[in-house]
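TASK: fixed-backbone design
INPUT:
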């Protein structure tokens, strides 16, 4: 018997791209200092090298995303561009975020919730791509985090729509607006 996977969708202009994907579990992360996030268990997360980070920008405004040059990473990379305050987001929390997405294949921004509306999902339940379920854990409200997500934690060999190639590496900047 085959299983059908339902994809949650967000819209960019006329192109519809999915953020949902494979299920995952994440047991959390620990902030080891400004601009560094380290997993506590299941995921392997590296810090984005300083030279490859996007500019921090200003909290509450749409950030600019910079796609690094060179070979994309093969594991999740993460760095806090702005550190938030309050409790850290954890698996099971319903979170509301704003994001900007760029891809290695295009080298530019292809989607942004800032152009439409914030995105809400339950962290750690497989409602989004695995790179988000692992990479958003530990964020605090008001924080801005850059995630570089390899295909294995993104969409893999499946292109969900225009702008994201098969086996594409994704570059997200995520602002955590609230933990519901």
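OUTPUT:
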């Amino acid at each position: 018997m085959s299983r059908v996977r339902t994809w949650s969708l967000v819209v960019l202009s006329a192109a519809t791209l999915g953020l949902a994907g494979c299920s995952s579990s994440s047991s959390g992360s620990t902030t080891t200092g400004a601009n560094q996030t380290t997993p506590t268990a299941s995921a392997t997360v590296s810090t984005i090298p300083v030279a490859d980070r996007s500019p921090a920008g200003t909290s509450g405004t749409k950030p600019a995303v910079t796609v690094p040059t060179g070979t994309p990473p093969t594991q999740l990379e993460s760095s806090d561009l702005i550190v938030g305050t309050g409790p850290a987001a954890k698996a099971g929390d319903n979170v509301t975020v704003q994001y900007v997405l760029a891809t290695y294949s295009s080298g530019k921004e292809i989607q942004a919730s800032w152009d439409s509306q914030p995105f809400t999902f339950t962290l750690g339940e497989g409602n989004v791509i695995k790179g988000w379920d692992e990479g958003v854990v530990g964020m605090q409200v008001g924080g801005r985090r850059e995630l570089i997500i390899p295909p294995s934690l993104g969409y893999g060999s499946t292109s969900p729509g225009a702008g994201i190639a098969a086996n594409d590496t994704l570059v997200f900047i995520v602002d955590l607006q609230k933990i519901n």
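COMMENT: Confidence is low (pLDDT under 50) at residues 1-18, 20-42.
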